[in-house]
């Protein structure tokens, strides 16, 4: 049976809200909730058998919009659910439905999501399962982008990861690149805390890939660093941290007493 007329009406509203400039995030979220209920009632959320081709196209389009909406709404668990539901359309009905221009952008987003969660083994398994040759992957900007990110992360080429944000093939990719940079900054910060007592603000901003001072100061506050704006430095000794004094004199006296006792035994 074709989708109910109300489902078609909601679908039209969703497209209008999603393509609006700017995108109406809140309205899209409300419409998607209603549409998913409609898809369940029509047996199209997880289709089985041989449903109507047009119905499948509408259902796939709704779920794809939902996947992009999830990233724009910064709701990664929601993206995971939409991606999981789309697998039926991309695999079971992949030979029946015409190709979707959104499929590989969404697959690429899923690959970057795996990187941000440090699920490297699953990243490679997912990549190998794609119906693309090595040459096709290199030529597909939506897949080659996360592939390059993974290689640069393994190499420690963090500056290339940072520059990749401006080279993202879709606006939604920047959300995950920003998430990756957050992880990278925390790793660099931990190393900096161990290696230095302090750094000039300018050097710290460069080291942590912060384009402006306000972002650096916010990050420093989150890490509990001491900032001296007068001298223009950051101290990595956290406030309230106590230094442990080594009792040198007692250690020396104890060592000498131990040596004397050994001499008496001999």
Main β-sheet description? 3 strands, antiparallel
Element pattern in H and E = HHHHHHHHHHEHHEEH
**Portion of residues within helices:** 55-70%
Amino-to-carboxy terminus distance? 100 Å
Q: What's a concise summary of this model?
A:
By secondary structure, the chain is mainly α. It has helices spanning 5-19, 25-41, 53-72, 76-92, 103-116, 120-128, 134-139, 141-155, 158-164, 173-195, 201-207, 213-223, 248-265; strands at 198-200, 226-228, 233-235. The protein has a three-stranded antiparallel β-sheet with strand order 1-3-2.
Structural overview:
- Pfam families: CSN8_PSD8_EIF3K.
- Keywords: Proteasome.
- By secondary structure, the protein is mainly alpha-helical.
- The protein has two domains: 194 residues, Alpha Horseshoe (Serine Threonine Protein Phosphatase 5, Tetratricopeptide repeat); 68 residues, no CATH class.
- The protein contains 13 helices and three strands; from the N terminus they run H-H-H-H-H-H-H-H-H-H-E-H-H-E-E-H.
- A hairpin with a 4-residue loop joins strand 2 and strand 3.
- Helix 2 runs antiparallel to helix 3.
- About 2% of the residues have low confidence.
